[in-house]
Target: Cytochrome b561 and DOMON domain-containing protein
Amino acid sequence: MPLPSQDASIAWTFHPHNATLDIVFFGSFISPSGWVGFGINPNSPEMTGTRALIAFPDPNSGQLVLLPYIIDPSVKLQKSPLLSKPLDIHLLASSSTLYGGKMATIHNGATIQIYATLKLVSNKTKNVHFVWNRGIYVQGYSPTIHPTNINDLSSIATIDVLSGSQAICHNNFLTLKNVHGVINSISWGVILPLGAVTARYLRHVESLGPTWFYVHAGVQLSGILLGTIGFAIGIRLGQLSPGRVYGLHRNLGIATFVLGMLQTLALFFRPKTTNKFRKYWKSYHHFVGYGCVVLGVVNVFQGFEVMGEGGSYVKLAYCLCLSTLIGVSVALEVNSWVVFCRKAKEDKMRREGLIGSSGKFSGSSHG
Model:
């Protein structure tokens, strides 16, 4: 069965009469001095608490070794090195083989097979939590921290070893991540910048009258509503994946959401045009609005990196969309300055009496 990340896969045979599970895990190295690990978490679908078998080159002989490890919270928080210790589960046998046999060498991309025979608790065969990962360096006999992109942090699968089906909860988690990314890219990354463009350039179209304001408010409120849903999904994802902290992405998301809420509240406290505080409100509205747009776009790009989509076609499509919006904004900005300069020139000529109020040149006639 293919696993959801790192091009890993797993095969197994379950013997119901004695609840014995024969497993073979297929993974690959990402460094000649790296490690590949696979294990089972008997309690929950997360890294902490996993009973793992980790393979890496022996620092003395260079030969492949396979050692048992228990991933406790101190290791996860990098408070102490990961030390080998006997597993407290019924591990009956284990071994590992590099693809190509005993003469194969460990290199970037080398394929490894890890074999294990476990005795499961007879009433806990429906959902078995498999966890796997790989790293680039081993310090002595202590594997160091693995990469932290989305693929490496999503290397967990809950499988019913009787039916061979993957648990729905894990699929839902992956679906939530994708929905979170799509919604936030559209709301904070497209709709809110579009709303800022409508406010800046439509308000100067005299034929629209106050319509520009309703268009601007409608676009921004729809963006905020959609962005709030995306933000709530992000909070839920954090609850479903304790220990996975994307500090920069989270902090940018919170800051963007707060600015968006402040901007929405400002709509309900909008002074009339004759109010002496109107100019202060406009400064606040512009500063918070543009700040929200900039942070939102930056965090969309940060989100692509977190999800491991930094070089994907999805990011390319978003870049093309954003570039189009920026190109339109530049064209409208240039047009606005042309119109402004032309109007300023006409006003000056009108004050000097060179043209009449209708915009036609005036002059004296001689009889």
Observations:
- The two ends are 101 Å apart (CA to CA).
